[in-house]
Each structure stands twice: as C-alpha cells, then as structure tokens.
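Fig. S4 source data, part A: sequence.
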Amino acid sequence: MTETLWAGVSGLLLGVSHLTLGHLFMLAIGGLLLYLIPQNRVTLRTARVLSAYIEAPEVRKFPQDQFKTFGQIVIAGIKKPRPQLNAGTLSALEKIPLTELQEITPGELLFSIPPVPKDFFIRSSEITPEELAEELPTSSLWKELHLGPLLQKDQAKRVIRPLMPPRKAHLAMLIAAGLINNQILEADGQRLLIKGTSKKVTDKFEEKTENGIKITEKERIVTEINAFDLNTGEYLQII
C-alpha cells in the first residue's frame, strides 16, 4: 500500500509510504501528520525530514496482535511554522529501528488541528489530463504576457522556424528524442517513415589485478534511427 491522502492545503496528512514526506508542503502549519511505516524502514532520510518539519513527534507501535505481522508503527506530530532541523529529535528518530517502542492505546494521543479552509477538498495524488486542462488557465504562468498566448491551443500548433537551418546532428537528436516520430520524409521520389529511439546500455570491462579480476561497468546512451521505406516495404536502420 503506497497511497497518500491529503485534504487541500489542510490540517491532516495521512501517509503510508516514503512518498508522503514529499507532500509535507501540503500540510498546513499546525496541521497533524500521521505517518505509518514499518519500524525497520525508518531511515536517516526519514528521520531528517521529520525532525525538520514536525514538532516533538510521538512514536508508538501498533497493538501487538497487529505489530507482529508487519512491524508497523505510527509517527504523529504537528507541523512547525518553518523547517528547522532539531538535533535531539533527529537522534531519537534515528534510533527507532533498534528501540523497544511503547504500544499505542486508544485516546492516548490527542491533537488539535487547524479549522477546515473554504477550499477544503480530498483528492488522489493522480491528476487526469482533463483535470490538468481545467487547472492550467488558472495558473499565473498562463496569464503571463509573453508566455500565455503561446500556451493557447491554437497557438501551440504553429510551426516555429529556427533562425538557422538545423544540421544533420540536430536532426538526429530530434528524431532520437521522438519529436518527429511517424513523420514521412520525401525526397527524389523516396518516402520514408521515421522512428527514433534512445536506450541505456551497460558495458562491462574485466581487468586482472593482484587481488583477482576487477569488473567495471559503464553506462552509455545508444541512439537508433530507423526508417520504413513506404515504396518498397524495406526496413532500414540509419543509425
């Protein structure tokens, strides 16, 4: 389970994965974080983020009948007015994986959260293209004097002519990036359907040393530009 649930820029953030820590900016100042995580998965990064954003977090383990299955704990606390690393809190959170934690009991931890704002809403972190299209016109970037008109649908389709004609290397990069995939190029009666790809490959090198064989791996990007001759049906690998 890796979902994160939040309510607008709200007073409550409930999370069950490391992705939750990236959503802390959506939690209102004074808002409550409830962070569920297996005890042995609390890392230094987790401790640093929580100690910087959360004031005096409380840590409890699940009731024993539930804890023995997944080893989950809950870290609860109120968001600070501004991020500031706390050495004492950081030290305590770092030791969680090796600490015998107190079991949580009903009604033990009580918190007050900020009032619900007028634009309160609950939604998934996934945004559909339709939702994005509705949200974009409200962006300040959309209303910017110079960029705004370029983002309009009818303007986005305009052909942009560069000041200098692109060289062969420039065209190869555009094709490999997929920007002109499925385009038909015609010249001297020949018609080619273009398709470009870029993929990462790993090269291995072996070297004999005094301690044995040393293996080194290096990654590189391989660019391929392929074409399909629409006249003959021949498949061509250009690069």
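Fig. S4 source data, part B ends here. The chain has two domains: 4-122, 168-237.
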